[in-house]
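Our platform keeps sequence and structure together, in a single record for each protein. Nothing more is needed to write down the fold, since each code stands for a local backbone conformation. An entry from our holdings is shown next, in its original layout:
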Amino acid sequence: MMTRAKGVTAALFVLLLTVGTGRAQTLLKLGEDLKGEHKGNPVSYVQLTLDKDKGAVFFKTGVYVAVLKVELKARQNISIESTGDGMGRKMALALFDPSVNPTKQLNKRLEAVVANTTEEFSNKTAQIETTEGVNATGTYYVLVISNKIGPFKIRAWDPKVTKVRDEKTIQAEIADLQEKIDVLKKELEAQKKKKSK
């Protein structure tokens, strides 16, 4: 199940990270798939304040982060989707404006332009998007958060431009969906066995 953050460009989210060192940054190009990997040591915790008025908080300890760059123009919208490979992967995303580089400020409070709006991880795939356009032209930072180490794939695109997917991409998405179905079937079978005892 994926979650979306829509129309929240003006709403700022606070990210607090502790521990960890600078992480390599790769350029994420709109319309292209990119493969990455969560590895190394986890950060102590990630805290995203999603709604100050309601006190909604995304808070997870011992998570793995990767930081990517993406070039955006003022008033441009962006959608980002990331899927973690492997059993039990959970994912979350956050987008930061050019004034905030997460790799240089891991021990400070950071403001995100867009973030996962639920208080929990998304299973396997997380998705975020803006609908009002970003405020300035420049290099934005994407924080990819996972509960486990392992490879992930990520894609960013302008939602106003049709998301073109080739045959290989479609087949990969079908395989991902089949894996999710298989996991759900196993969970359902386990629940049935518990009830029959």
